[in-house]
Amino acid sequence: MPQAIGHEEAWQAVTLSAKAIKTIDSIGVEAAVARIRARRGIWSMSDARFEAGLAWARVWAKEHGSSLAAPARASAGGYAIGTWLSELRAAAQVPAGEPGALAPERQAALEEIDPWWCPSWPIVWQRAYSVARIWWLESDGRVDWAQLPGETVFEGEQLGRWVVAQRAGWPGLEADQQDLLTAIGIEADPELIAAKAAAEAKPKVSRADRFQQGLTALAAFVEREGHARGPRPHREPLEVVVAGPAGEESVEVVHVGLGAFMNNTKARRAKLTPGQLAQLAEQGVEWA
Hints:
Blueprint: H1 8-12, H2 18-27, H3 29-40, H4 45-63, H5 81-92, H6 104-113, H7 123-138, H8 159-168, H9 175-183, H10 190-201, H11 207-225, E1 235-243, E2 249-257, H12 258-267, H13 274-282
């Protein structure tokens, strides 16, 4: 329950009188809930708490594009709306009829505010979508998402990166997610989808392989420069053999962040094997 009243409309939404609203600070939250029960003929404390939370949910949705995808720590007028919604989403996952399951009438009340308040996909996706929708609405529906800069940030969300991720990861989205995106003009990008598939097809590099790759880059740097003190921003070009989807091999040039490799390896030196330390020492790394 809220510790203080920041939006009288939230309490008015549960039909408290003006006099009751003014006296909430003095009578306390529990007494306020009791007042709700008396006014609405609700004899369950749980129902009264839900009604109060629902009122704050309406306040939140009104201020956030009709969405209830609030962060876990979000608050509205001092009310922990994020926690309240998180707990209800957890209850919605409990099979009907079992202890702790969300009552159908409560679910219906929340869906009346936001049909996607409890999606089957991660709530962080729904939150980012709601931000994209606000952007679209504020642009009167005239948005060329393909031209949106990747570094675009809006309402605290990395909107540009998120849009690219949706257009590239379209095949992995649920049908309802695709429908939501299509409704605001975001569509699949065949080129991005192909690039993502190609990147995922490449074999994963193990930590041992990354160490060996960094060591090889270090050896090339030492041979050329005569010392192992590579600046942190330095990236050493290195030819590596990679296997294609059909098993064919090809040579690619990768740029190894040598400075980052040295700093990270030093931070992990307690976990390095004696052999790895010896290899570093051979290249003139003093701390090894």
